[in-house]
Specification:
Arc Repressor Mutant, subunit A; alpha+beta; 2 domains; HTH_AraC; 8 strands; globular; Jelly Rolls; 37% helix; 10 helices
Length: 271
């Protein structure tokens, strides 16, 4: 059986929690680090860009647009549907969220191919990657490693021929003040409703609807590890109900929010 072949009713996460738990290092608005000994997800579409590194000698498998890619290091742009198969393959994943100043450097890749990197680019961080995977790196050190790994990846991204000057303007409109409607965004940009929608997707890497969903998820991250119920968190974050939250979370991250807050499976570190 090929490594990427789906197994009926196979768990995407948590198969090896009795041996090694998943770890999440919360960096804040810029992103997070996720480590796991086992990931088998068929079709996720997260809003974050991801730098995925094997913490050991075995490769993982990505399936994107029908292509199977076996590697030990890769960059996956945001909102790109992918399957990820790393069964008993230790992974350390660095996620760059829309709130990061570095997000724009990764978002334009969604229109092109997936950069596979030489794992040797990150060899000098092998010890730190192993400690991250085992949940033994301090939050302060994790933050330093996160920033260093992101900068290494940026240096090896394909050149962006003409960076779009509208990115900063759109980001400012979205990040300051109340969330605008598409009509308000069009008025501020001086373009039609249609072109505002087109620019949002092309320049910012996501639709306005996806952006608003991400903002809700950002609020979920802030509340998920509190004592509040999933239903309370869903309402506080702006979701219709817990089912709406769970569907969105599952589509983006391949696991239900109940798994992410289960201390039997996941350890949380705030950096």
């Amino acid at each position: 059986m090929a490594v990427c072949d789906p197994i009926p009713n196979e768990a995407g996460f948590g198969v090896l929690s009795h041996v090694m738990k998943d770890n999440v290092y919360m960096i804040g608005r810029p992103g997070f680090i996720y480590t796991a000994p086992w990931i088998a997800t068929r079709n996720t579409r997260p809003p974050s860009a991801a730098i995925i590194l094997a913490a050991g000698p075995r490769p993982f498998t990505l399936i994107i647009k029908g292509r199977e890619l076996r590697t030990r290091a890769a960059i996956v742009p945001p909102f790109v549907a992918r399957g990820l198969y790393a069964r008993n393959v230790p992974l350390v994943c660095f996620h760059i969220m829309p709130g990061s100043a570095n997000y724009d450097a990764f978002s334009y890749l969604a229109q092109g191919s997936i950069p596979l990197l030489e794992r040797s680019l990150f060899t000098r961080f092998d010890l730190e990657l192993e400690l991250l995977y085992r949940g033994r790196l301090s939050p302060a050190q994790a933050l330093d490693v996160y920033e260093a790994i992101v900068q290494i990846a940026i240096r090896y991204l394909p050149a962006q021929a003409h960076p779009d000057a509208r990115v900063r303007r759109i980001r400012d409109l979205l990040e300051t003040g109340p969330e605008p409607t598409l009509a308000q965004l069009a008025a501020e940009l001086g373009v039609s409703y249609f072109w505002a929608s087109h620019m949002m997707a092309k320049v910012f890497g996501m639709s306005l609807r996806d952006y608003k969903a991400w903002r809700k998820q950002q609020r979920v991250f802030d509340l998920l590890h509190s004592q509040r119920s999933i239903t309370d968190i869903a309402h506080a974050a702006g979701f219709t109900d817990s089912a709406h939250l769970s569907r969105t979370y599952q589509r983006w991250f391949g696991q239900p929010p109940s798994y992410s807050r289960n201390s039997n499976h996941v350890r949380i570190f705030r950096c």
